Amino acid sequence: MTTARPGLKIEGEQREQLRRRLRELGFDEVRFARVGEEAGGGLREWLAEGMHADMAWMERTADKRAKADLVLPGVRSVIIFGVNYWSGSEAENNFAPAKPQWARYALHKDYHDTIRPGLVAAGRVLEEIAGAAVEDYRYYVDTGPVLERGWAARSGLGFRGKNAMLISKTHGNWLFLASILTRVEIAPDAPLRKSLRPADEGEPAGLLCGKCTRCLDACPTDAFSAPGVVDARRCISYQTIENKGIIPRELRAGIGARIYGCDVCLEVCPWNRFAQKGRQLLLAARYDLADLPLAEILALTPERFAEIFRRTPIMRLKFSGLLRNACVVAGNGGDISMIPALLRLVVHDSAVVRAHAVWAMQRLAGSGAAALLADARARETDDTVLAEHAAG
After folding, report:
1. Which residue of 51, 73, 119, 318 lies most exposed, with the fewest beta carbons within 10 A?
2. In a domain, 350, yes or no
3. For residue 84, is it within any domain?
4. Which structural domain, as residue segments, surrounds residue 369?
5. What are phi and psi of 124, to 5 degrees?
6. Could you tell me if 103 and 266 are in contact, meaning their C-beta atoms sit under 8 angstroms apart?
């Protein structure tokens, strides 16, 4: 097993010099945690309950998430980075009446791509100050087998709220997290409470929430099985992004106008009153997406989809996924002017799109839906779509 070379240690003023240099790269927060005991007890319980839905990659990487040494042998420290994506009043356009609602983070170019260059530069700074080699660290932007929220809590960057998100006392709920695992031993920052266990997602949620349950009470689909525990199977963010198939009928009404993700449990948190607009030096805003009318989205072609959403998180949803979500939003919106667009989609190439378009038609056209859908139903061969016709 590879271990850290002697002398790879940072503390005192050298540590603060490292922090300053890393912040100058555009990160709003830079904190340090020491790697110690195995973590991830809460993760294992969550997986055992099946709350990860079909996100099989969470199971495959569970051991690595629990023990950082399996990711980088000889790892001693984790550098946690926070990038504030709160955009203040500019994001209010996202909640204009009659417009689809997007998770705030989606109103940027893909943060994985824009933050990564900052981490590459951070690695060079670590090499310069600590004498580390390239093989002495690995960096991740919310994609690797790393318990970012657990390490962030251990480093004092914030605490795990009852909404299961990291909550910062200065940034509220609006931080992207990134990390560097390194063999360099860096003097750790203190957690907000010294009793906080190391990087353990099983730590009871709500360290500084008090009796507040606003996030739990506000969830439109009752996705919290307990404070700090999200059942992905009921979560709007999972259903509108990670789920590539049929959204359960019983959850569709709760989705409302949310076309991509959901921020409800973040928005209602009282800690957001301290949030200030971030520097966004490692982000690229796409606030224009919030102005897209639902009718335009329903009429998208594959080419137009690629043109509008290039290099944004929405690309991971793919064209058919966005149309599926748009159908749900149309069905919830009550605007009968969407019927012609939905009639075109009930014969779409994708069975998933057809199924949700049928559901939306039934919601909007009521008793007249059967007649409008008669031709499409007669031509339909997919059992899932036929079940939607029958359910109406």
Report:
1. 73
2. yes
3. yes
4. 294-392
5. -65, -40
6. no
